[in-house]
Amino acid sequence: MAQLYFYYSAMNAGKSTALLQSSYNYQERGMRSVVYTAEIDDRFGAGQVSSRIGLSSPASLFNTQTALYTEISSKHQRQPIHCVLIDECQFLTKEQVRELSDVVDELDIPVLCYGLRTDFRGELFSGSEYLLAWADKLVELKTICHCGRKATMVLRLDSEGRPRHEGEQVVIGGNERYVSVCRKHYKQALSSGSLEEVHGVPVRSI
Ligand SMILES: [Zn+2]
């Protein structure tokens, strides 16, 4: 039986690398995988998932209007699909998560979703909220804070390096940087107004 998977993490935990590795594993066995990524993420050019270690794959794009079940089902009729992989799945709507669960339940195709659990305010993204609720398997991809603890939170830093916890959930083309930290240092950075002060080291850009 196929299952719906949610691989979640803070930023920079190698989600895209994990996705591309899974996709490759299917292809290596002569199976067809289909990759989607959010239209909002154009860091690497349209219709592509790339990892920072140099792997990449062409990808279909989704936005909030994409009818994922209809699209995947018609691709599947033309040529059987053995696995669907979704990058940036935090941007899925509730309805799209339901459609992906239909891909699993009606078409019997495994769906592997990769994305962030929470935004820089510590709030769940819509896609992550419903994946946490409905996925068969929840898998945490781990990354660490400067202090060595597991990083579970994402800080948004403005152009002067000050942590922000207000504003739009997604900023495109801004000068913000994002840093993954543990919960303790997330709270300390917001209350002191500086991540450098908390860690005593400069923050690397991403
Ligand atoms: Zn920490």
Automatic annotation (TrEMBL):
EC number: 2.7.1.21
Binding locations of ATP: 9-16, 87-90
Top EC class for this record: transferase
GO cellular component, one term: cytosol
Biological process, per Gene Ontology: DNA biosynthetic process; thymidine metabolic process
Binding annotation for substrate: 170-173, 178
Pfam families, alphabetized: TK
GO molecular function annotation: ATP binding; thymidine kinase activity; zinc ion binding
Coiled-coil regions listed: none
Keyword NAD in annotation: no
Reaction equations catalysed: thymidine + ATP = dTMP + ADP + H(+)
Active site: 88 (proton acceptor)
PANTHER family per UniProt: THYMIDINE KINASE (PTHR11441), THYMIDINE KINASE, CYTOSOLIC (PTHR11441:SF0)
Protein's name in the database: Thymidine kinase
Organism per entry: Duffyella gerundensis
